[in-house]
Design goal:
- This is Transporter.
- InterPro entries: FApF (IPR025737).
- It holds the Pfam family Phenol_MetA_deg.
- Keywords: Signal.
- By secondary structure, the protein is mainly beta.
- It has a 15-stranded antiparallel sheet that branches.
- Strand 4 and strand 5 form a beta hairpin.
- It starts with a helix and ends with a strand.
- The N terminus is likely disordered.
């Protein structure tokens, strides 16, 4: 119940910020009126999503605004051992981002309804289904974000995952710190990198362990409505001394200035990495 109170408190804080904060905060060298604030000379920042890759955006959303990001469907397959395989279907993984100041936003990540199937040699297929955990996060931008003339943008994200789910959840509290950075090049090219560390929970051994997760991404805006990205990500399990690496790529469709859709494929580079197909969307208001 305390976990639910925390989630409600986060959302109420976002609603309060939405009511009190100014709507348009991006300062332009040659300002033009925004749709939300005609004649004000201030505009909203461009839409910046944390999805679809592992490498998140160092940009925050404008104070007083809410951004929803969701995996509509994600199909995940793994081969944890010779002769065995797992398949997971995740439906509607939801991230709620709320801008509370020019440099800070709060977030709630709600794990989706998940269906897991596992096949082991000589054993019948096992099936489990249910909802996952809730993660509460804070993102703060340190460099860039509110100035289009700055090429480098850097932020930090802190998170705690609450064990609100059942068998599909982690089974214990988890913590993490992420530092995403983006360098904006000419011609609408962007190079991004992220350093991340997690204190994850092992449900079977009932103890925490450390994971390190660096990633690198390259994206390019082809035209006003289409962009493409590619990404290399890896995750190192310090306890088991094991790497899981993959390449992620796909297109991004900018339907409007405040609405985008994406789909993509994740290719495993190591036997412990997941192979994934996904479709998602982002909307800001």
């Amino acid at each position: 119940m305390k976990n639910l109170y925390l989630l409600f408190g986060l959302l109420l804080a976002g609603v309060a910020a939405q009511a009190q904060a100014p709507a348009d905060t991006l300062k332009r060298a040659n300002p033009s009126p925004s749709a939300d604030s005609p004649g004000s000379g201030r505009q909203l920042r461009p839409l910046n999503a944390d999805r679809p890759g592992v490498t998140e955006s160092p940009n925050t959303i404008d104070p007083g605004h809410i951004q929803l990001e969701t995996d509509l469907v994600r199909l995940i397959s793994t081969k944890p051992a010779p002769g065995s395989r797992d398949r997971t279907l995740r439906v509607n993984a939801l991230a709620i981002r709320v801008g509370v100041s020019d440099k800070t936003e709060v977030q709630a990540f709600i794990d989706p309804y998940t269906v897991e199937k596992a096949w082991e040699p000589g054993e019948p297929m096992q099936r489990h289904a249910g909802f996952g955990d809730v993660a509460l996060r804070v993102k703060h931008n340190f460099i860039g974000d509110d100035d289009e003339t700055e090429a480098l943008v850097i932020a930090a994200i802190g998170l705690v995952r609450l064990p609100t789910g059942g068998r599909e959840g982690a089974g214990g509290y988890e913590y993490g710190v992420l530092v995403p950075a983006t360098y904006n090049l000419q011609g609408d090219w962007h190079i991004s990198a992220q350093a991340a560390a997690f204190l994850s929970y092992d449900r079977d051994e009932k103890q925490h362990y450390t994971e390190l997760a660096p990633s690198f991404a390259l994206d390019h805006g082809i035209n006003k409505w289409l962009a493409a990205f590619t990404e290399f990500s890896t995750r190192y399990d310090v306890k088991h001394e094991q790497w899981a690496s993959a390449i992620n790529l796909g297109p991004i469709f900018h339907i409007t200035e405040r609405f985008q859709m994406d789909f993509g494929r994740r290719f495993a580079l190591s036997h412990t990495a997941t192979r994934e197909y996904y479709v998602g969307l982002v909307i800001e208001r």
